[in-house]
Design goal:
Layout (H helix, E strand, L loop, with lengths): L3 E3 L4 H28 L2 H40 L5 E11 L2 E11 L2 E5 L8 E4 L2 E6 L2 E4 L3 H16 L24
Length: 185
């Protein structure tokens, strides 16, 4: 029997999504400003609409890929964990006013609570502790560490739930488990 599933109310999620939309709009405006600064006005006039569409298409593709990876991971976690586990998907928390964190998956079971960060990356990657690299063409390039991202989320959660936690206890390490068709054990 699959794990139990819980859902979060949508208020925090909606506020978080709105802030993300605003951030993306600012990034798009910065891109258009760079076009204005670096190209003659006639070229900028012609190129900005095309660049805007390309920006939107790229973002939509990235979002679809990320959400597809998260949905696939959720389904696998939900089906593989026993009934005494609870799976929460796409959890948005507000540790401080107007400061949000998004957790891909939260697993609650007999041994404890686990935060799971899903990455829908293609190709090869190397990881040693917080140093992550992805293969891009023939080169290895640094990328944001999912381990560090999960640790930031964990620390924000702990500070929110237990404000006097630091100084009295030590945190354990964040572990990363590769999974999927390209992973090695």
């Amino acid at each position: 029997m699959p794990a139990r599933r819980m859902r979060q109310n949508s208020e925090n999620k909606e506020r978080f999504r709105q802030l993300i939309k605003e951030k993306v709009a600012r990034e798009k405006d910065k891109m258009k400003d760079r076009i204005d600064e670096e190209l003659p006005s006639w070229a900028a006039w012609a190129l900005k609409p095309i660049a805007g569409v390309m920006f939107d298409v790229q973002r939509a593709g990235d979002n679809a890929k990320g959400e597809g990876g998260e949905d696939s991971a959720f389904l696998n976690l939900w089906l593989m964990l026993p009934r005494d586990w609870i799976v929460l998907n796409d959890v948005v928390l507000e540790p401080k006013p107007d400061e949000f964190i998004q957790l891909d998956h939260v697993l609650i079971g007999p041994p404890g609570i686990y935060l799971v960060e899903t990455k829908a990356w293609d190709g090869a990657f190397l990881a040693h502790k917080d140093n992550w690299k992805r293969k891009q063409g023939n080169r290895w390039v640094r990328c944001e560490s999912p381990t560090r991202q999960s640790l930031r989320h964990l620390l924000a959660d702990v500070r929110t739930i237990y404000p006097d936690f630091f100084g009295k206890h030590a945190l354990s390490q964040a572990n990363t488990l590769p999974c999927g068709p390209d992973s090695t054990s």
